[in-house]
Amino acid sequence: MTSEITLFVNPTAGRGRGAHAAQPAASALRAAGFSVRTLVGDGPDDALRRAREAVEGGTGALIAVGGDGMAGLALQAVAGTRTPLGVIAVGTGNDFARALGLPVRAPGAAGKLAAEALKSARIREVDLGRVDGRWFGTVLASGFDSRVNDRGNRMTWPGGRFKYDLAILAELAAFKPLPYRIRLDDGPAFEVDATLVAVGNGSSYGGGMRICAGAVLDDGLFDVTVVGDCSRRTLLRVFPQVYKGTHLDHPKVTVHRAAKVTLEAPDVTGYADGEPLGALPLTAECVPAAVRVLAPRS
């Protein structure tokens, strides 16, 4: 393995924390004897092109510095290769890093952990989801939560998380359960009116909302959480429980496990790792051991 490591940096992550986080992460890697090259693209497409070039050129590791969006972009470059992925989590959500048991908003500690993993060859293999060739590490969201994302992305004011709080209130005022058609693996499709359906490779999204609380990163299966036809009052009562994962005990919530999931519903966009995938129908496949990560073993 080459001693040159590539830091894949999003300077705008976490309201500028990405740019500041690169320095302590790089210092920790250099202190361990690695040569560090910093990669910053001119937009997502250019960044991904450069990351793929670094992987093809034999970099010893690609280490994403930013939030879930940056980690998700890095996955597109390293998935299916032997190049390990590190994550210096300094974004708003950081759900992929949490699922891996990595430090959050502690770039020096995260850089040191990545260096130790590389020097000791302590590299973990985890599953990824894949939809039409695009990889994801955490959750494919659809329904109420994806419509909140749609609305939040259209809003120019206010900024930060408060924008999505307002989007939630606006969607609650108008939302009705959606008619879903769901197929698990090669079984028969079934129909259900649902508030949302989440397909979890990891357990959480949205900065710690444990929508698929039982999901495991290396079991070869998704956890599919179906929240049924909730009233607004029920949804408001159940919603806070998502942070502890206790919503799974509610009678309107069911959980399935499958390696392949097809979701169909009208006028719904699927989001994975916080990024839009496109309109349903979508089919997600769980690919075992799809990426090598610099993270503690489960």
Looking across the biggest beta sheet, what order are the strands in?
Answer: 6-5-16-13-8-9
Describe the biggest sheet?
Answer: 6 strands, antiparallel
- Measure the end-to-end span: 24 Å
CATH topology of the largest domain: the name is Tumour Suppressor Smad4
Rg, Å, rounded: 19 Å
CATH architecture of the largest domain: Sandwich
Order of helices and strands: EHEHEHEHHEEEHHEEEEHEEEEE
Number of helices: 8
Domain DAGKc: 1-135
Keywords: ATP-binding, Kinase, Lipid biosynthesis, Lipid metabolism, Magnesium, Metal-binding, Nucleotide-binding, Phospholipid biosynthesis, Phospholipid metabolism, Transferase
Family: Belongs to the diacylglycerol/lipid kinase family.
EC number: 2.7.1.107
Give me a quick take on this structure.
It is an enzyme of class 2 (transferase). 32% of the residues lie in helices and 31% in strands.
